[in-house]
Write a structure and sequence with these properties.
about 15% strand; 6-stranded parallel β-sheet; alpha/beta; about 350 residues; elongated; 6-stranded mixed β-sheet; Rossmann fold; single chain; 12 strands
Length: about 350
């Protein structure tokens, strides 16, 4: 028995009842196709598991798309550096997209990607829904997720860091100094790394036999404002904490400002520990104790995985979590006597 004939653009066009150029327009992300027709063509492409062949020899400049949920931080700069170093070594260009704080791009963005047909897409704390992911897969455009916000589509490789262990070692450090009333200001609850860091925090508190006051667990936004707002609230309490674990260096900086405005000295009156080890963390006063996650290495690893996928070589390990490390500086010390 002979193998069934492969699905072609002509097969799809005949089934849907449209012309071959119309199917080609949809595959290339062209906007001049009626939404109903586009949906029928996409459904047929998915039904037949159509995968476009990659014609690398006929391409122009080779590109990867880098999609970041928010560009306005030093954290994002470290990710961009990591991608750019690897991409430049392979003579691949980088197209940068800012989602303005959102975790999923709009369809207009996806249409543009389908038009330029990059080697692949790197999503940073962002991803696609299943139908959008199928549109990339149909065009044989692979993707990789860095520091995933939620569960990525099945089969999408991810690169992150050991967030649970980061929360654990940060809290163990504070407990080892003698702190018992410890607050945590994490990121949004719908972001996986936020939840993992808090879970590590809870595990350390439980390991140390310390009762956790639920009112000291706060969801911030990973930005300075979140740390400042929660810091002012926590430190204005009569039973204020003696230490705060902030889920990012930026939030830790917000806590430091709140402490200064309330007349508290760090680390004499309050210990503060951050997360990320951004370059600025060792230059602020006091220099920040923090959990280092290898942001540039994470981004570089994701880029190498993506380029391998674009060449038809799936990574041997689709989930990579790089190690974190506690960096002790001047913002943590034993609690005040009698606290």
């Amino acid at each position: 028995m002979s193998d069934p004939a492969p699905t072609t653009i002509a097969t799809i066009a005949a089934e849907v009842g449209v012309s071959v150029p119309t199917v080609s327009k949809v595959l290339n992300g062209r906007p001049d196709v009626a939404p109903e027709t586009r949906a029928r063509i996409e459904a047929a492409l998915e039904k037949h598991q159509y995968r476009r062949r990659r014609g690398r020899g006929a391409r122009g400049a080779e590109l990867v798309d880098l999609v970041i949920h928010d560009l306005g931080t030093a954290w994002a700069v470290e990710i961009i550096k990591g991608v750019e170093v690897v991409a430049a070594s392979e003579r691949v260009g980088v197209v940068l997209s800012d989602l303005g704080g959102e975790h999923r791009p709009r369809q207009e963005w996806l249409d543009d990607v389908l038009t330029r047909r990059p080697l692949g897409v790197i999503f940073v704390q962002s991803s696609l829904d299943a139908p959008q992911h199928r549109q990339l897969a149909t065009r044989s455009i692979p993707c990789v997720v860095v520091d995933t916000a939620g569960e990525p589509p099945l089969g999408v490789p991810t690169v992150g860091s050991a967030n649970w262990n980061g929360g654990l070692v940060a809290t163990r450090h504070l407990l080892g100094l003698g702190h018992r009333r410890i607050a945590v200001i994490t990121g949004p609850n719908d972001v996986m790394c936020s939840r993992a860091r808090v879970d590590g925090f809870r595990a350390a508190m439980d390991e140390g036999g310390v009762r956790l006051d639920p009112s000291l667990v706060r969801n911030g936004d990973f930005f300075v404002g979140g740390g400042y707002g929660h810091g002012m609230d926590l430190l204005s309490r009569p039973d204020r904490p003696t230490a705060i674990f902030a889920g990012s260096d930026l939030q830790a900086m917000g806590v430091l400002r709140a402490a200064r405005e309330l007349g508290l000295k760090v680390p004499e009156d309050l210990s503060v520990i951050g997360y990320d080890d951004l370059p600025v963390s060792e230059w602020i006063n006091p220099a920040l104790t923090t959990v280092r996650q290898p942001l540039q290495d994470m981004a570089g690893t994701a880029t190498r995985m993506l380029l391998s996928l674009s060449r038809g070589a799936p990574p041997p390990n689709p989930r990579i979590d790089l190690a974190t490390e506690l960096v002790v500086r001047q913002s943590t010390a034993p609690p005040p006597p009698g606290s």
